[in-house]
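Hello,

I think I submitted the 6-O-phosphono-beta-D-fructofuranose job twice by accident. Can you confirm which output corresponds to this input? Input:
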Amino acid sequence: MTSTKDFTLGVLTSGGDAPGMNAAIRAVVRTAMSNNARVLGIANGYEGLVNGEFRELGPRDVGGILQRGGTVLQTRRSQRFREPKGQREAIRRMNEAGMDGLIVIGGDGSLRGAHALATQGIKVIGIPASIDNDIWGSDIAIGVDTALNTIMEAVDKLRDTASSHGRAFLIETMGRNSGYLAVMAGIVCGAEIVLMPEVPSTVEEVAQSVEDAYRRGKTHAIIIVAEGANIHTTELARFIDEMDVGFDTRVTILGHIQRGGRPTAFDRLLAARMGTKAVDLLLADQTDVMVGLKGMGIVEISLEEVTTHERPAALIYYEMAKMLAR
Ligand code: F6P
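Support: Only one job matched these inputs. Its output is below.
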């Protein structure tokens, strides 16, 4: 093992930002400092790695960021880093800066990048952070809990107006190809219907379910539509209107509001646990692994496994949401 006194680690955030990324950066920097290691913050994700946008970070540089959403290191979706040429340039930049290891905080694409670097001899540890919760190997990623709370607050408000007017509200949530946020929102917000990519439906079936809810005496219908669902939200609203099922419809696309905001206590704690563990692993000469949460414990999973598996759909929760919507 390298003496931690001589160890320089880089840290970057990549892909879509997620609330709690700052808390993870802070944990990485301060854990490294406590072990006498040096930290270089890399701006703009892999794009900054390719460009050599490095700056030294000390404990004071990460003061006052724990409670802030977004990422002080900034993030990008880098096209250049996907090419072997970009990766070679990134490695050259790291060597030039005397970087002994790297911590990557990001989603599935970012972790694939981390694995690519590890297979080329760079010591890399991944930390899962993405509101989509579509990463294999961790029960939950940093940012998911905050996003879900943001959705819950928005839907609670929309329900007030939906029931006052006797309307059906179609509320679109993020998640890319994953229905995790939508289905969990369905449960915690008591939605009448959830549409997720993993369970395709037809507009006719959905309109029928909305009509059934009306006939059962509901004063409103909340329909959570995952952005990756097979039915387009506004087209579905138009169809339900045409079918005259009892409720008028309105559409709300929650959009990027779900990515911002103060991280919840859960996300701050998760970020602290994952950030400290990632540094411990790197200083113990580990590489090519991601830290994850399994049950109540922090574990490590190989990046090979993480990047070659699809996280299964939350189907048990889909059934639960349906049953509780009666
Ligand atoms: O991966 C996070 C996420 O917010 C997805 O839910 C969404 O599909 C995508 O990023 C949006 O990307 P962008 O911020 O580049 O528009």
